[in-house]
Amino acid sequence: MTGIGPTICNPNPGFGLRVRLDHAKAKSLASADWSCPCLRPAEHAVGYDEVEQLVIRAERHMRDECPNEHVRAAAAMRSERRKQHARKRRK
Ligand SMILES: [Zn+2]
After folding, report:
1. 61: CA distance to ligand 1 center in Å?
2. Which one, 37, 51, 78, 90, has the greatest CB density within 10 A?
3. 1 belongs to a structural domain
4. For residue 60, what are the domain limits?
C-alpha cells in the first residue's frame, strides 16, 4: 500500500471518495474529490494536507452524518474492517 492511510475504494463509480497520490515527486499535486449520494455538495481538495482533511471529513460525514442509510452502513463496515485489520496486525 502506498500513500497516506488506506485507499478508499468505491464499488459504485460516480459517487464516493477518490484520492490520487500518484505524483510521488510532487506531493503538492495530491488531489482528492468526493461526492456523496445525498444532497451534500461535492468537494475537492488539492495538496497533501487538504487531501488528508478531506478524507477525514468525508469519512466522518459518511459514517455519522449522512442522511442516506446505505452510505452510513457502508462506511461503518469500512471502519470496522479497518479496525479488525489494525488489531490483527498489531499482534
Ligand atoms: Zn452524504
Report:
1. 6
2. 51
3. no
4. 16-90
